[in-house]
Amino acid sequence: MNLRIISGEFGGRKIGAPDGRVTHPMGDRQRSALFNIINAEIPGAKVLDAFAGTGSLGLECLSRGAESVHFIEKDNTAQKFLKSNVELLGVGDRVKLINTTVLNWIERADPPHFDLIFVDPPYDDMQLSTVTRLFDLLKPSALMVLSQPGRSESPTKPGVVVVDNRSYGNATLTFYRREL
After folding, report:
1. Span between the terminal Cα atoms of the chain, in Å
2. What is the DSSP string of 4-18?
C-alpha cells in the first residue's frame, strides 16, 4: 500500500504502508483537510507523532517545514515502514524514532514539550488515559490533534481546551489547544 505526501518539499512523493490491519492510515481527503486547518502551525514546529504507524502525519509536517518530529510506534512491522519512509525522504537528521508504547515513553524518557502533537491510537484500543497524559507535553498555546472513531468521548484536562471538532466518515478529529 502506498500513501502520498500532499504538499511541501516532498509533495507528491509516495511512502510505504503495510497492507492489512497493522495501521489505519488517514485517507488523503482527511489528511488534506487536517493540514489545511493546521498549516500555519507547522513551520519551525517541534512535532510529536504518537502512535505513528507509517509516519504519514509527521512526515507531512517535515515536508511543510517542521523543525523536527519524534515518532512513537511500538509495532515492529509499522516501525520498519516508518524507518524506510524516513530513509526514502532523507530526513533522518530531523527525526527521532522511538520503538515502544507511548505510555512507556512518557513514563521513562523525560520527554520534551512540543508545538504540535498528533495522537492516532488504534481505534480498538483508544488508551484515553495515555492520551490525557500527552496534554502535559504541550507547550503553552500548542495544538494537539486526536483522531478517534465516530463520535467517541473526547478526553479533557484543565488548562487544555477543545477548539474544534471535525468528522470525516467514520473518524473524528478533535483539536485541543493548551492555554497560556
Report:
1. 41
2. E--SSTTTT-EEE--
| Cα–Cα–Cα angle for 143, 23, 105, rounded to 5 degrees | 55
DSSP structure class, residue 29: H
Domain-by-domain residue ranges, the chain? 2-178
Cell of 8: 511541501
31-60 pLDDT per residue, tens: 899 999 999 999 999 999 999 999 999 999
Q: Which residues pair with 157 in a beta bridge?
A: 160
For residue 41, give the DSSP letter.
G
Residue in this structure with the C-alpha cell 490491519, named with its chain if needed = 21
pLDDT tens for 68-123 read 999 999 999 999 999 999 999 999 999 999 999 999 999 998 889 999 999 988 87
Mark out the alpha helices in the chain (DSSP H runs): 28-38, 56-63, 76-89, 102-109, 128-134
Can you tell me the distance from the alpha carbon of 91 to that of 170, in angstroms, rounded to the nearest whole number? 32
d(CA 137, CA 94): 19
Fold that domain 2-178 belongs to in CATH: Rossmann fold (3.40.50)
Query: Is residue 85 classed exposed, middle or buried when 0-12, 13-18 and 19+ CB atoms within 10 A define those classes?
Result: buried
Q: What is the dihedral of CA 50, 14, 35, 83, to 10 degrees?
A: 20
